[in-house]
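Researcher: Re-running this chain for the archive, since the previous output was lost when a drive failed. Same request as before.
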Amino acid sequence: PAESALANAGRTVFWILVAAHAIECVVFFPRLRRAPGPLGRHLMQTFLYGILHVRELPPSQGASGGAGRG
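Model: Regenerated structure tokens:
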């Protein structure tokens, strides 16, 4: 019984992490597309490492493009 509870908890954590990293891939997709290098590699790295990979990307060009307009 203890093994099955631990196994169930492990599976639950696994699927939560899969869902979280899949959501990160969707949320950061525009930034990943603009990043230099192959998009597939960026998607894989984001799925595996999440925000840790996205933080290492160069800043987005569009982030400061609209500042100062008025």
